[in-house]
Amino acid sequence: AELQQAAREDGNLLLAAVEASRARATVGEISMAMEKVFGRHRAEIRTLAGVYGAAYEGDEAFETIQREVELFEEDEGRRPRMLVVKLGQDGHDRGAKVIATAFADIGFDVDVGPLFQTPEEAAQDAVDNDVHVVGISSQAAGHKTLAPRLIKALNERDAGEILVICGGVIPQQDYGFLKEAGVKAVFGPGTNIPAAASDIVRLIREARS
């Protein structure tokens, strides 16, 4: 109670936390008391628009995939929509930012999930945002556990038509496991982004045909 009062009244939180610990409060209990006042931090990935497109201005492959996206929109009535997610304790978000920016500049509608999501939270975001594909950015070796859980969570929400792809630092020996689990494509370091975008448009079309 004293800790929450200190939080509400801009008091000395350190002193209140020390006194709470002396009274045998755990770190979790102290955190929960402050959370009731402040709320929980939600880490979000912020992206910039136009950076990738400016770098590839005049590039034939870039212009080709832009045309493919335009044709997709003409055929489907909307642009291909992708949700980029970071799952589990993987906080390395630079790659996710690059991909989100690049695909947005190509012409995709791109949503970016917050850091440290569970597969179930990401699946619900994918359903709520009505995306065609979820891209898992994996830099911390959780892909063999998290990708199958995401696919399972999508199926549980009757959203098995949403494609799941993976990218990042993923050993090649894991590619087969992921594809057997239902991952439609895996993109490793050094992937050509316009080529990857073209592959994804093709996969979406195939899934909808």
Radius of gyration: 21 Å
Named at the architecture level, the CATH assignment of the largest domain is 3-Layer(aba) Sandwich
Gap between N and C termini: 60 Å
Count of DSSP E strands? 5
CATH superfamily annotation of the largest domain: Cobalamin-binding domain
Q: Which residues sit in consecutive blocks of at least 5 with pLDDT less than 50?
A: none
| Share in helix | 40-55%
**String of helices and strands:** HHHHHEHEHEHEHEH
**Total number of domains:** 2
Average pLDDT, all residues? 90
Under CATH at level 1, the class of the largest domain stands as Alpha Beta
Class inferred from helices and paired strands? alpha/beta
Q: Strand count, sense and closure of the main sheet?
A: 5 strands, parallel
Give a short synopsis of this structure.
This protein has 209 residues and is an alpha/beta fold. It has two domains: 2-38; 51-208, 3-Layer(aba) Sandwich (Rossmann fold). It has ten helices and five strands.
